[in-house]
Each structure stands twice: as structure tokens, then as C-alpha cells.
Write a structure and sequence with these properties.
This protein is an all-alpha fold and 103 residues long. It has one domain. Helices cover 53% and strands 0% of the residues. The relative contact order is 0.21.
């Protein structure tokens, strides 16, 4: 799936807003997801090469925002059931298995 420039911009903003509502630090997010801060930054800017990784971050942030007693900001491009997208590995997403390395 390829996002157009407006979808990329919206998704970056939605990830950032949900991160802010989570009450977590970037280091906490990176530690929870077992990734480096470099990789996390690439995810927040959607420059990460794996298609699964942004969905993992999305789901993680939604969960943390809800645990914080707040309503997550709705995503406009990363929507629907990831199990139904042929280009995503739903098992990897469900298990929160980020791709290896910083790319």
C-alpha cells in the first residue's frame, strides 16, 4: 500500500498526537517495542522500510492512550483490520515483532 503525500502527512500527525496523549517518553516507547530511538524516529516520520512496523506502532499507541484514560486520535490512512490487507503480515503485527535493524 502506498500513501499519497496528504495521507503521509496526516499519518505522521496522527502518530505524533497519539504519542503525546500516551504520556510516554520516546525512550519508553522504544524500550517497550524493543527498537532503537533511531528506528522509532523513522517510524514517526514514516521513513521506515517495513509496512508492518507503522501498524505495530499505531496499535501500541492506541492501546497506551486508552490505558491512559483518553480517546486516541483516529487514523485516516491506517484504518480497518490489518488482517484483511494482503500486503501486511498480520501475525507479525499481532505479535509486535518489529523488523530487524534500524531500517
Amino acid at each position: 500500500m502506498s500513501l499519497n503525500s496528504q495521507q503521509v502527512s496526516n499519518t505522521i500527525n496522527e502518530l505524533h498526537e497519539n504519542f503525546m496523549h500516551s504520556g510516554l517518553s520516546k525512550q519508553q516507547v522504544a524500550d517497550d517495542l524493543h527498537i532503537s530511538l533511531i528506528k522509532l524516529q523513522k517510524l514517526f516520520t514514516l521513513t521506515q522500510s517495513s509496512l508492518n512496523d507503522p501498524w505495530i506502532l499505531r496499535n501500541y499507541l492506541i492501546q497506551k492512550v486508552e490505558e491512559n484514560g483518553k480517546n486516541p486520535v483516529a487514523f485516516t490512512a491506517l484504518v480497518g483490520d490489518w488482517h484483511q490487507y494482503w500486503f501486511l503480515n498480520s501475525h507479525v503485527i499481532d505479535q509486535r515483532q518489529m523488523s530487524a535493524g534500524d531500517n
